[in-house]
Amino acid sequence: MEKREPFFWLTISCGVIVMAFILLPLMDMVTAPSLSMLKETLKDRDVVRSIWLSMYTSGSAALISFVFGTPLAYLLARTHFKGKRWVESIIDLPIVIPHPVVGIAILSVAGRNHWIGQMLGDLGIRIMGSVTGIITVLTFVGLPFYINTVKAGFEGIPPRLEKVSRSLGASMSSTFFRITFPLAWRSMVIGLIMCMARAISEFGAVVIVAYHPMIAPVMIYERFEAYGLKYSQPVAVWLVLVCLCLFLALRILTLRRAREI
């Protein structure tokens, strides 16, 4: 039997500590509410409405990211230009900016004192305290996850396939939709899930832009502030289950892509 070196046991120990650090609080939270309490929570219309609103707004943010992020991800994957690193850095900014700052930044642009806010007001579009505002915030925080995932997917497709298509007379758009898009669809789905999963958990920016209507994270915070853990935990459990389903789909898609490679 091969003798394990001390460093091997160090890696195992660190792994156990990290897994315990992540799982213990979550397991305790999930098992704290009784089954009857979880069922009772689903009868609360406000809770159901907040969870559905979270799913709707985060899904909308993912679709917006798909429409506007896919062409940009393709551009970054296929071209090299001066300032490309700056563009990539700007795209990643929402990941590192503190969440309340995101909300304040969006309101500063969408407020009545800014020309963009005045233009939106003339068009009847309201950001503060609206579903539109929530979608705007969630798109802001989720967009980098979609673009980076899809960019990696495009980079994994051999450029020679596109060159062959172009040499046969196909246009750039025809090549993209007939060759590149079908080959990258799984990366796009993974990017959509990543974007939605990130967006559905956002709290800090949303609570500044739109406390009402309440998405699930805001409702959890309000229930905790008003009633404590007993009434906030069941809502948190249902939101965790939704996120778990998203990441289960993500892992399945990722595993299938790895097998194909």
Provide the descriptors you would attach to this structure in a database record.
MetI-like fold, single chain
| H-E order | HHHHHHHHHHHH
Number of DSSP helical runs: 12
CATH fourth-tier homologous superfamily:
MetI-like
Which fold name corresponds to the CATH topology? Answer: MetI-like fold
Q: How many angstroms separate the termini?
A: 34 Å
CATH architecture: Orthogonal Bundle
What proportion of the residues form beta strands (DSSP E)? under 5%
Q: State the share of residues found in helices, binned by percent.
A: over 70%
Class per helix and strand makeup: mainly alpha
The overall pLDDT average reads 89
Quaternary structure annotation:
single chain
| CATH C-level class | Mainly Alpha
The Cα radius of gyration reads 22 Å
How many domains would you count in the coordinates? 1
| Shape by Cα distribution | globular
Layout of secondary structure:
Layout: H1 6-31, H2 35-42, H3 45-78, H4 84-96, H5 99-110, H6 115-122, H7 131-155, H8 159-167, H9 172-200, H10 204-209, H11 216-227, H12 229-260
Helix pairs in contact: 3-7, 3-9, 4-7, 7-9, 8-9, 9-12, 11-12
Quick structural gist:
This protein is mainly alpha-helical. It has helices at residues 6-31, 35-42, 45-78, 84-96, 99-110, 115-122, 131-155, 159-167, 172-200, 204-209, 216-227, 229-260.
